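Slide 14.
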Amino acid sequence: MTAPGPLTPMSPPGSRAPGSPDAGRSVAGRMLAVLDAFDASHRSLSLTALARRAGLPLATAHRLVASLTRWGALERDATGAYHIGLRLWEVATLSPRGVGVREAALPFMEDLYEATHENVQLAVRDGLEVVYVELISGHSAVQVRTRVGSRWPLHATGVGLVLLAYGPPRLYERVCARPLRRYTDLTIQDPHRLRAALAEVRRTGIAVSDRQITMDGLSIAAPVRGPRGEVVASLSVVVPAAEGRAPGLVPAVRVAAHGISRTLAGALGQEPVAEASGR
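Slide 15: predicted structure.
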């Protein structure tokens, strides 16, 4: 499964504009701009490249990078280039929306993988995008470009359709306020079609994204609910579109997602709230 790269995370205004003026930004904003200079295509950066991508003078970037390196947010390799440090990973593990859900989901994801030997993915919503927090894949599974931490649009992915369907009432309007990005000829770009697709997700509790990202992949996704019945994540399995396996995999995805929901509820000594057809 091949696809264009994932969407670039939203950045502070001007944080990636080479030569943008630095005046008016706080020290915290400048530090965040340095960290935001890294992405999937820029995992290792020289000091000069960091300064340029962060929109900072070289002297300012040097001072901030030194502080971030001492704290462990950045690490410097033998070539002198910088990359994200393990200290940030340690902090990220404290996020209940990411790692907490991941820990509850992993046993069920492993079971789903053993039953299907296909790509199994877990994602949460961040603004108008989905963020993948776990992925299990095999050598024989259809190739995907998804990775842990990557972002994709809500309207074109199976997990995104679930999170959009059960999101806040105004989320749909926010998504449709800008053009819906096209990946293939089958990507939903019409807001009316998207509204109908979301109504079907709420009716069935399952989202199917058929060749919307690439022409060889199809994903089946189901909601993962928190103790109060709110959708906190989405679980999906990605299979070759040509095999026609989607109907047979729906029960397995649904059962795995429900198992994760029960685990999240059990962590607080509660029973999961029954799934409702509407928001």
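Speaker note: The first helix runs from residue 27 to 36.
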